[in-house]
Amino acid sequence: EELTNFKAYLSTDEQYKSFLEGYGMSEEYLKKSLKNEYLINHYLSVKIENLQPTDEELETLFNDIKMNEQVRASHILVETEEEAKSIIERANKGESFEDMAKELSVDKTSGANGGDLDYFKYTDMVQPFSQAAFAMNVGEISEPVKSEYGYHVIKVTDKKVDSEITPESKKMDLTELYKSQKYEKLMETLKDEAKIITN
Questions:
Q1: 24 phi and psi, to 5 degrees?
Q2: Which domains does the chain have, with CATH numbers?
Q3: β strands within the chain, DSSP E
Q4: pLDDT tens, 42-63?
Q5: How far apart are alpha carbons 59 and 168 in whole angstroms?
Q6: CA distance 59 to 169
Q7: C-alpha distance from residue 118 to each of 42, 55, 110, 155, 157 (Å)
Q8: What is the pLDDT of residues 77-95, one digit of tens each?
Q9: In degrees rounded to 5, what are phi and psi of residue 121?
Q10: pTM of the entire structure?
Q11: Taking a C-beta distance cutoff of 8 angstroms, is the pair 152, 144 a contact?
């Protein structure tokens, strides 16, 4: 079944054959790989589904991702750390952050708005970005923050806390996020173990 689904995904027999040739694998090897992946995913799904996090674990996660907080920030995204440091130096000398964002940011969408990203939750952004932004004070400009997109210079412009959002009121969302994180960690562990065995 996994092989049938995979063939359907590649649309045509020619694409399927090209895929096998490109990776130098036989159909038998692909069947085995897909079967193993299916079994691993099934095993992890069952294991994770039966997980029941404690209230303490959910509260820790709530605090870690600052679920009741939102930050408003602007950023300038560039390709190199040197560019980011130059922007920080210019900002510290009083140059307009908004003007530099319009001129220099490779994120043209936010750059057109002076770098403004509006309000966002911790989980809305990639982790290095959120980690930096949520730890900053209003008005502060960050050191270069590296992410998969490049280097960010972040300026926090506002923060707000919703006191009505509690671990109890968000228990279902927190539980799903907890399970998702555990799934990813277990998958990474299995991949690392597979590499060790292969090597």
A1: 60, 40
A2: 1-41 (no CATH), 69-161 (3.10.50.40)
A3: 69-78, 116-120, 145-147, 150-161
A4: 556 766 777 788 999 999 999 9
A5: 9
A6: 11
A7: 39, 32, 9, 12, 9
A8: 999 999 999 999 999 999 9
A9: -90, 165
A10: 0.64
A11: yes
